[in-house]
């Protein structure tokens, strides 16, 4: 876990103002006691960078930041260098130092391919003191978000929006974007460019932000090789591309398992974790996973399907966890407190349904985790209705609940549920009492449980080859999932999907 902020003070008094605000609000965005705090400032230029490290000793990470006379580099999360057999000898966990050296050899345009950084949850910020600029970017998976703020006193980027929220002109409590809260809670998804703080904006995965001190100009551009830029291919090439992507995914999994980490893998009723299971079993790697983990009560749909998959695949290391058995009331009113807490603390692409409550957090996990979330990779592409990325609710619900022949997307029941959530919570959120419920209680402190408690997360499905193909035509990624499962281990297709009818686990 690594939280940091890099930026530029625009006025002589800005650094003092920034220091006071951070001192006032820092306890509210630090979830555990930091192992290390650090900062760097160049008073001549007004450039600054600061951060805190938590859990790095647990994962044998020596350093996440690298400072020299020209460039300050900081790395959040854990990059996966799939194209390298191993880290350089003697510097296996000096991540920022190695990234800094590699970046001197490769321009921004070739970042993902040249460094092999497609997977993992990571972000990188560079402050170039010599050239007087700041650049920041994050993983294609979107699971380690990058955010920025630009006001009369500062320009700053951070991998934690709550830090930037503390830098707002009127503080983190008064500049709340209530329209975004309504949107986020109604759809249980993080989309667009807005955040719950009016001045804080999110940078889309595979985009990078560049700020030049000389011109004070902000540029946000996609990488030329971004998988979100459509690159249509011929039908005849599709199967070849899918098989090539499968080989790359297998190589990525082997690289990760050869690092010697303790690895767990999510196993749910969804298509993403099922595909990861197919890849691991098809490549003979499943026994090298510490365990497969499923959360939910005995009657929970994810738990039922996961048990069927575990039995079908012959898993001996599947671990069901009884989770939220006390939340037996499925009414909107029962979920509302959980929703209102979740939307305040998101940093990544996780839905409001999935977050733990604050008291369930204990300490950083020692495990590295394989997760899916491919739907979030493509959720970016819903057409925005305005430059801020606000979408029409009905259009998005209809777009996100399309039912196709593979049965992998949500069906009408899910669409009706989303509509009920939207209408009920929109109505309740119109009251100030609800919008402010617990707003001053741990605002931004615990983010999202899967992001905070399991900071080293890997998304094998964040594969550039497959993402480009998925963006070549509508619903292509559903076909990709199906063909990949069939290529890796077709036995997983024999278990019904979560949105199909079954009569119980047997």
Written account of the structure:
With 506 residues, the protein is of the alpha+beta class. It has a single domain (1-493), classed as 4-Layer Sandwich (Glutamine Phosphoribosylpyrophosphate, subunit 1, domain 1), CATH 3.60.20. It has 16 helices and 17 strands. It has helices spanning 14-25, 95-105, 111-115, 161-165, 178-187, 235-257, 271-282, 301-313, 332-345, 374-378, 393-400, 412-429, 432-435, 449-452, 464-470, 476-488, and strands spanning 2-9, 36-42, 47-53, 65-67, 71-77, 122-128, 133-138, 146-150, 154-158, 200-203, 207-212, 217-222, 263-266, 291-295, 318-321, 368-370, 457-458. The strands form three sheets. The protein has a six-stranded antiparallel beta sheet. Strands 4-5-6-7-11-12 form a six-stranded antiparallel beta sheet, with helices on one face.
Question: Briefly, what is this?
Answer:
This protein is of the alpha+beta class and 506 residues long. Helices cover 32% and strands 18% of the residues. It is built from 16 helices and 17 strands.
Comma- or semicolon-separated keywords:
18% strand; Glutamine Phosphoribosylpyrophosphate, subunit 1, domain 1; alpha+beta; 32% helix; 6-stranded antiparallel β-sheet; disordered C terminus; 506 residues; globular; 16 helices
The major sheet is characterized as: 6 strands, antiparallel
Strand runs, count: 17
Separate helix tally: 16
- State the strand order across the main sheet: 2-3-1-9-8-10
Report strand %.
Answer: 15-25%
Q: Can you tell me the CATH architecture?
A: 4-Layer Sandwich
Mean pLDDT: 69
CATH class: Alpha Beta
The poorly predicted ranges are 185-189, 324-362, 378-415, 425-455, 500-506
CA-based gyration radius: 22 Å
How does the overall form come out from the CA principal axes? globular
Gap from first CA to last CA:
40 Å
